[in-house]
Amino acid sequence: MAAQHEQDTQNELQQLREREQARAFIDREATRLFAPEDEALRAAVDALSQNDMPAIQVSPLQGRLLQVLGAASGARKILEIGALSGYSSIWLARSLPADGRLISLEVSEKHGAVARASLERAGLADRAEVRVGSADTLLPALVSEAPFDLVFIDADKPSYPLYLDWALKLTRPGSIIVADNCIRGGAPFRPQSEDSGATALGEYDRRVATDPRLLSVVLANDEGGMDGVAISVVLTNEMPARSEHA
Ligand code: SAH
Ligand code: DHB
Ligand code: MG
What we know:
Shape: globular
Strand content: 15-25%
Bound molecules: S-adenosyl-L-homocysteine, 3,4-dihydroxybenzoic acid, magnesium ion
Oligomer: single chain
Structural class: alpha/beta
Order of helices and strands: HHHEHEHEHEHEHEE
Distance between the termini: 61 Å
Strand order of the largest sheet: 3-2-1-4-5-7-6
Number of helices: 8
Helix content: 40-55%
Largest sheet: 7 strands, mixed
């Protein structure tokens, strides 16, 4: 009896290890095939450790997804909130035509300088700009530069709902809004979190999933499926008038 239970446990563990190995293999090979990093992208990653910055950039496959979405929407103007070392900025800017524009908002003076250097090294300084300041103070000035064809939200998590309000103001029907970290190990889906970031991400997820102005999906595409991006297409920027009978 006990021996059988021990055997079952061992088999189960072995299967879990094999799944984990297969997952790592798939991730490595898919990255190699679809999202190989060139020198400029590797330099943006190296800049993190060199400047004592956290390695919380998007994965190569997520970066590639951002580039694909930019190209698919024919983006000419992109807004990013949260530049870090400019890693995702490079992927995004690479979806732009030569006369396109990426504006990336970054609260840290140091991160902003590192991101600018990364974009310069990637030969994208002609179309990509980093503005230093807190996004909530910089966003109002962007009204005159709207509409943006793609907005990528990846900064302080408690502000995600606020950034969604701004994204809806700064886009047009057909624009795409992407937000990172919308799964975070499931925390946003659990009720009553102690973590204000998880609570705000939950609000973000619920809003993009149900807002009639948006058509959205969440993709488990990071941390072995434990994290991922929410992707929304803007159907309309106007809140539909509520039916009198509803
Ligand atoms: N998008 C980057 C990672 C961003 S990490 C990449 O994938 O390469 C989050 C960044 O948001 C950090 O650099 C942090 O300094 C910045 N940030 C945090 N709060 C912010 C705010 N209020 N306004 C603008 N940027 C902010
Ligand atoms: C954190 C932030 C991110 O945007 C991310 O992708 C991963 C981690 C963080 O603040 O810990
Ligand atoms: Mg992130």
